[in-house]
Specification:
By secondary structure, the protein is α/β, with parallel strands linked by helices. It contains three helices and seven strands. It has helices at 6-14, 63-72, 123-134; strands spanning 19-20, 51-55, 77-80, 92-96, 99-104, 107-110, 116-119. The strands form two sheets. Strands 4-5-6-7 form a four-stranded antiparallel beta sheet, with no helix packed on it. A hairpin with a 2-residue loop joins strand 5 and strand 6 (107-110). The longest helix has 12 residues, at 123-134. The radius of gyration is 16 Å and the shape is globular. The model has no long low-confidence stretch (mean pLDDT 94).
Length: 137
């Protein structure tokens, strides 16, 4: 996660960074004048290819964003679950470390909020969701 803009990202890659964690999540949003770290997928100012983790759980990243990232830079894609230990616990509130997490369906929320606490979707579900939404085998 980062609040860095495109220029920050290009400098980081040119100093050795090679991976964007949770593309589109907990980062500056894409903007047409500064595409943020998303712009690294097509930047001509970086010295190496960049890989990106994208959460394909059906909650963290809109299907159109999955397609945009994949079609822009398919070789950089790394599917991640962002799964937390509430996975498999069932609906209700659970203490996860110091957090109180509320599980509702396939969402894990910080109790009392609508903020995602992480994911409770398995990798096989993420793969199926990605294939379905991206329209790619």
């Amino acid at each position: 996660h980062s609040n860095g803009n495109l220029e920050d990202g290009e400098a980081a890659v040119n100093c050795g960074a090679s991976f964007i964690t949770h593309l589109f999540n907990a980062m500056l949003p894409f903007h047409h004048r500064d595409p943020g770290l998303v712009g690294l997928l097509t930047s001509k100012l970086v010295s190496r290819p960049v890989h990106y983790g994208i959460i394909a759980d059906g909650m963290h990243t809109h299907p159109a964003a999955l397609r945009i990232a994949y079609r822009t830079h398919p070789k950089g894609l790394v599917l991640v679950t962002d799964a937390m230990s509430a996975m498999g616990l069932g609906e209700g509130e659970h203490h996860i470390g110091q957090l109180l997490v509320r599980v509702e369906g396939k969402r894990a929320l910080l109790a009392g909020t609508e903020t995602l606490a992480g994911s409770i979707v398995t990798m096989d579900d993420c793969v199926r969701h990605f294939i379905h939404e991206a329209g790619e085998p």
